[in-house]
Structures are given as structure tokens and as C-alpha cells.
What does this fold into?
Amino acid sequence: MTQESYGRTEAAPAQAHADVPDEVLRAVESVRRMMHIDGVQYREIPVPRRLADYGIGVGLGVPLDEPGYGDAIRSGISGWIMTLYDLEPRKAWRSHWRCAAFVCAPLPGPAHDALAADMVWDAVTQSLESVEAVDPAGTVTITRNAGYGALAGDGTAGTSAGAGPGAPVRTLGFEVRVSWTPATMGDRDPDVGAQVAAWARFAHDAAEAIHDDSGL
It folds into this structure.
């Protein structure tokens, strides 16, 4: 991770690690060592300094190319996870650490907005159970999109019933924003690499659900 990911963007490269707590450096190493999931793209992203003293940011992407759904689906799944660290524990976090994450993705097939939101949140909590996330909280927003012209459908999927070629492609999607405190055992550091891996797994599973045209 670069010095931007530590939230100290003003540091010169030679000094970037000089004042970084050992806990944060170990967290960075755990992210570097984590196993990557096939089909998921990873990239480093900066963490805004206003969020915490230090931070580790990872952007995620899952390309999709599902025929008949238009560019709304082919644009894929995108998201990120930021692991934040404050020198003084925050009361709301009950820890020095907090994870914040986001994913934007299409939804497979037609769905009732309320049921879709519940389905997405259930999938989020199931993904976070693997890392024993503490106090997860967040929102799920269901989005509706219609593509026209070059972004219209081919009449095979994603359009209204009976629509022919060139009809607008209508798709549902979701945006999920969630934060949680990573679990720690006594004086041990949280496994930050495991937090990133769990969120990447959620993005990957969302892509699998679209490919299979099934629920999350």
C-alpha cells in the first residue's frame, strides 16, 4: 500500500512508513498475503484522511458479460473496502479499527424492491459471519435502470414482456454500504486480509448469482 492508503498523503516516500504504527503495517502485510479469488480484480485505492488516522483501501471489480442484458450488466460489479485505524479507540467502534465497504451490482431477474433489499442484506451478513464481524450496520438501495438506443436490449432478456429488439432494457440493481468492527482476540491484531477477502467473496458471489440467474 502507498502512503495515501495510510491516510498520510503529505509524507515523502522515504518517510512514508516512519510514523506508521506496527499494527497498521502488519495489517497491510496481511492484505498483501491474502488469497485472491479468481475472477475478482483488486486495486489499491486511497483512503480520505478525514475518515481516520490511517487506512487501507482496496478497490474490487468483477467483470460480467451476460448476453441479452445490455451494458447495465456488462459493466460488471464494482466496490471497495476500507479498513480504518485511529490512534485512540473510538467509542462508536469499540475499537481502534473499523471496516467500511461498498458494492454496486445488478440484480438477477425481476424482484420486489423490499424482498430484494432483504435478500442482499442477508447475503452481506452471511459473508461477514466468516470473519465474525462485530456490530455490522448498513443500507441497501435498490436501483432501476433503463437503457435506450445503443444501450437497449436485444429482446431476449432484461426487457419488458413481449418487447422486441431495440426495446429499452430495464434492469434492477443494488448498492450496499456497510461498516463493521473487525474481531480481535485479546491483544491480537484483527485479520485485515480476511476482511478484504470476505468482501471480495461477497462481490464474487453476486456475480455468480447473475451468471446463474439465481438469488444471492
About this structure: The radius of gyration is 19 Å. Helices lie at 22-33, 71-74, 113-129, 192-212. Residues 3-212 form one domain. Confidence is low (pLDDT under 50) at residues 1-15, 67-74, 155-162.
